[in-house]
Every structure is written in C-alpha cells, then in structure tokens.
C-alpha cells in the first residue's frame, strides 16, 4: 500500500485516522477522531473538524472547511473555499447549541465557494455550481446552482449535462451525449427543474 504523506506544516491530531495513499498538504488541520479514507487529497489550509468522516478518493481543495457533523462518501470533489455549516442558530454565547448532520453522497461534486447549510443531503453524482448556497436536499445526478441552489438539470457520472430523450409516466429517460450513458430520472426529481429565465 502507498504510504500516507503529511506535510510538515500540517497539524493532524494523534486520534485521527488517515487512510493509505492519502496526501495532506501545507497548513491542513485535521481534528480529533476525524476519519479520512484511502487515496484522498487535502489541499492547502483545509480544515477537517472533530469526528468528521470522509470516504476514499475524496478531493478537498484549498481552504475547504468541513466542520463536525459532516459525512462525505467516496469519490467526492469539494472545491476551494467550500464551507459546511453545522449550526442552524449560531450565537457566540450559546451554551446549548447542537450539530445538525450533513451528508454528501458518492461521486458528488461541489463547486468553488459554495456554502452547504446543515441538514442537507447532496445525492450521488450531483453537481453543485460554484458560489451556490445549498439550503435543502439535492437529488442524485442533479445539477444545482444559485442562492439558494435550485435544480437546473441532471449530470452523468462523467460530469456532463444529460439530454432528455423520452418522458414516461414514472421517469424521464436521459442520455449523455459525451459518453453515451443513459439514466432513468424519477419523474418527481425531474419535476424539480427550475427553468432558467436568464
């Protein structure tokens, strides 16, 4: 197995678990009891909070902030300056604050500068556009962006936008014109598309 690489300027708590082949770069801070999987990349100045769980082959780009209560599954991309919020009612003087969990499912991508509010689930292979504010769940394969982020289409595993081929009663058949993959998007998910008026 490949060894873990931890840059000398990184601070990794002794209770954190780092998987084989993972690279932890300059000025990263990994807190107590965090779990980071195999073959991950943590870019410059990434923060991983106490107890955070991160899967295998995840990329956390420069200055991403992953606070307690967040779980990230395998093969997720988190862009630079993405922040996960974990307290819906923050006050500096609160003594009874609680963490609300957030889940990012396998293969999802979150664009640069996005803020993910606590309690949201981002579905498998969803694509969140840069600068978005995610305030609610995002369906699998959905392309969502804006403030608040709204569904604008659906994405292939390869990341390209899917093209509608045929509407059925319970699903919409969509195809990737780049790789040829086809998907059955549930009708209730497809109905969430907000048509772009701009």
Describe the structure.
The protein has 198 residues and is mainly β. The chain has a single domain (5-161), classed as UDP N-Acetylglucosamine Acyltransferase, domain 1. It has one helix and 25 strands. The protein has one helix at 187-190, and strands at residues 5-6, 11-12, 17-18, 23-24, 29-30, 35-36, 41-42, 47-48, 53-54, 59-60, 65-66, 70-72, 77-78, 83-84, 102-104, 109-110, 115-116, 121-122, 127-128, 133-134, 142-145, 150-154, 162-167, 171-176, 182-186. The strands form five sheets. A nine-stranded mixed β-sheet has the order 1-4-7-10-13-16-19-21-22, with no helix packed on it. Strands 3-6-9-12-15-18 form a six-stranded parallel β-sheet, with no helix packed on it. It has a four-stranded parallel β-sheet with strand order 2-5-8-11, with no helix packed on it. A hairpin with a 4-residue loop joins β21 and β22. The longest helix is centred in the last third of the chain and has 4 residues, at 187-190. The model has no long low-confidence stretch (mean pLDDT 96).
């Amino acid at each position: 197995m490949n060894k873990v690489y931890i840059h000398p300027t990184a601070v990794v708590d002794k209770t954190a678990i780092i998987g084989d082949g993972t690279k932890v770069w300059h000025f990263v801070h990994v807190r107590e009891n965090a779990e980071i999987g195999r073959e991950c990349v943590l870019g410059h100045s990434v923060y991983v909070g106490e107890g955070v769980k991160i899967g295998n082959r995840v990329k956390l780009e420069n200055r991403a902030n992953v606070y307690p209560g967040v779980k990230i599954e395998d093969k997720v991309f988190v862009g630079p300056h993405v922040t996960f919020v974990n307290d819906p009612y923050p006050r500096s003087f609160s003594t009874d604050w609680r963490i609300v969990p957030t889940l990012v499912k396998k293969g999802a991508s979150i664009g640069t500068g996005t803020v993910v509010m606590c309690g949201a689930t981002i579905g498998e292979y969803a694509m969140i556009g840069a600068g978005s504010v995610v305030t609610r769940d995002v369906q699998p394969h959905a392309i969502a962006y804006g403030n608040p982020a709204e569904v604008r289409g659906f994405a292939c595993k390869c990341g390209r936008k899917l093209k509608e081929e045929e509407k059925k009663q319970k699903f919409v058949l969509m195809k990737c014109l780049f790789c040829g993959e086809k998907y059955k998007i549930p009708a209730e998910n497809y109905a969430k598309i907000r048509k772009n008026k701009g």
